[in-house]
Amino acid sequence: MVFNTKMIFALLFLCFSATCVFAGDPTLEFEWKVTYGTIAPLGVPQQGILINGQFPGPAINCTSNNNIVVNVFNQLDEPLLLTWAGIQQRKNSWQDGTPGAMCPILPGKNYTYRFQVHSRPLIPVPFDNPAEEYPVLLGDWYNKGHKSLKNILDSGRSIGRPDGIQINGQSSKVGDANAKPLFTFEAGKTYRFRVCNVGLRLSVNLRVQGHTMKVVEVEGSHTVQNVYDSLDLHVGQCMSVLVTADQTPKDYYFVASSRFAQHPLSTVAVIRYANGNGAASPELPPPPPENTKGIAWSISQFRSFRWNLTASAARPNPQGSYKYGKINITRTIKLVNSVFLQWQAQIWHQRCVTCGRRDPIEVGRVLRCG
User: Fold this and answer.
1) Where are the beta strands (DSSP E) in the chain?
2) Is 136 found in the same domain as 107?
3) Domain identity same for 145 and 110
4) DSSP three-state, residue 95
5) Range of the domain at 350
6) CB 187 within 8 A of CB 172
């Protein structure tokens, strides 16, 4: 099936924990209506895409081995796909929701996604249950609507630099008296932030004023629990951090700032302690270095993330992946992506290899594309 219209993506958070596998795993069913609506993440009204009238869309709170059924009604005037970040679609790629893996939902039509969340036996969570979990969707944002950005790319031009940074669909400045708290703390309790960079271009650094962050999970795998003052989060990357409310009860800022950008961007969100007294300090925690030193700093930090081998390590399996650490490396392959013009549009590729954006992967395999 051939479509010329660029697909729309909705990044959806699936919050999950571990449990045992039973024959009758629970099924959670949802009905989502996707429509247009007016949004203003940076204070400028623009057309956005809503799910059941919400932006950001609704969260699915589920547990490992739950069966998820989502009936999506496309009430837009263009094709739509939803992609499920972090869910391993084993032998189920036609539910993955990426262009090339499946065809889009046409305007006025509906499609029912069916998949299971991380089918696996019990894996104990290697930390105490937090007082509360906060999903955080942050990233760069453009005041141009998605249709305008699509037209720019399809004309072969660059979409340029973003207009700002948003956190959960909002953006605030330091000292904004009208800013409402996005997160609330109680002194002495620990909170889990599930953070994803859902932007288009920029890596983002996040900091919590006056507090440290303990990384406990990256991309769905538990990690060795190291503590950081600031964290780089690259486009499409997700991680979980624990923050303990161990400071004087008052307001503090959750800070998100751009990385490696010629024109730096930043925003803040208010964290409010219960029964706290006092506004957040205007002095924000400093960002990490930029330029060449900043790149080295970011790479070094990423290399510090280590798999927690006592909690989420590979188990013996038919593929033998648990033996990979014993195999000597004899060849290293570097993958580099870049952009070029094709079909008069901006096309991204790896080593000059790309597959026709109009052809689903299964068709591409038959046609020996790429």
Assistant:
1) 14-15, 27-39, 46-51, 60-61, 67-74, 110-116, 132-141, 164-167, 181-185, 190-197, 203-208, 213-218, 221-228, 230-233, 238-244, 251-259, 266-273, 337-342, 345-350
2) no
3) no
4) helix
5) 337-366
6) no
Does 168 have pLDDT greater than 90?
yes
Let me know whether 295 and 220 are in one domain.
Answer: yes
Q: Are residues 283 and 142 in the same domain?
A: yes
Residue 356 has pLDDT above 60, yes or no: no
Q: Where are the beta strands (DSSP E) in 209-306?
A: 213-218, 221-228, 230-233, 238-244, 251-259, 266-273
Q: Kindly list the distances between the CA atom of residue 105 and the CA atoms of 8, 66, 109, 365, in Å, as whole numbers in the listed order.
A: 10, 24, 6, 22
The domain boundary residue, chosen from 303, 324, 347: 303
Classified as helix, coil or strand, 354 is coil
Give the type of residue at 328.
N
Listed in order, strand segments (DSSP E) in 101-202 are 110-116, 132-141, 164-167, 181-185, 190-197
Q: Are 202 and 235 in contact (CB under 8 A)?
A: yes
Look up the CATH number of the domain holding residue 80.
2.60.40.420
Tokens of 328: 């000597």
SS3 for 271?
A: strand
In a domain, 92, yes or no: yes
Q: Which of 216, 14, 10 is nearest to 116 (CA)?
A: 14
pLDDT digits (tens, 9 = 90+) for 10-47: 434 344 333 333 447 899 999 999 999 999 999 999 99
